[in-house]
Each structure stands twice: as structure tokens, then as C-alpha cells.
Fold this sequence. Notes:
single chain, 115 residues, mainly alpha
Amino acid sequence: MRRCQKCGAEWVSDKKQPGVKESCPECAAYLHCCLNCRFHEFGVYNDCSIGTTEFISDKDGCNFCDEFEFATSDEAVAGSGTADEARTSFDSLFGATEHKKDQERLNDFKRLFGE
């Protein structure tokens, strides 16, 4: 399934690829952009896994890249995960247990200062 990188709306068309200036009907973001391309890979040269592409500074703007292929939703990486998952992973990395509830924190504070 092909989705807009900005809002996640599905792109339905008989065409294989969106046109250069084609935009999402839901949020008006450009569809023919680096962030929707299956070759977009943050951190590699030009953020593109094809090493011969020209540099494009505006990754969510329309471009004329001949290598563009619309990524399917299972190829997309951006936005995969939540803040809670990140916090849980971070806590487990450093051996932290579940967060104490506010009342338990208050009781610990009172016990510490003799109130």
C-alpha cells in the first residue's frame, strides 16, 4: 500500500508513480519526494541508498529524480514507534523499573524530609 509520508493517506491511482507535482488529496504534501521514495535512507550519502543521485535539499518537496520509486507502507520506516515504546526501551537499557505513581513519589519525598 502506498501512503503519503506526511499524513498517511493512501495513494490510489492507476499510475505506477505519482507525477512530479502531484500532491496528496488529504494534506496537499508532494507525493514525488524523497521521503516517499523507497530508496530514501537517512544517514547515507545524500540520504539515498542509490549513490549516484543528485543532492536534493528539500526532502519533502517535489523533485525530478529519475530513480524515484514510491515506497510501500511496509517499506516505510519513518514514524514507526511511539514515545512510550522509546521510554520503555530507554528505561530497560539502564535497569529502571516502572515509573512510580505521583502519590508514591510524594510519600517518598515526605519520608525523606520527615514530614
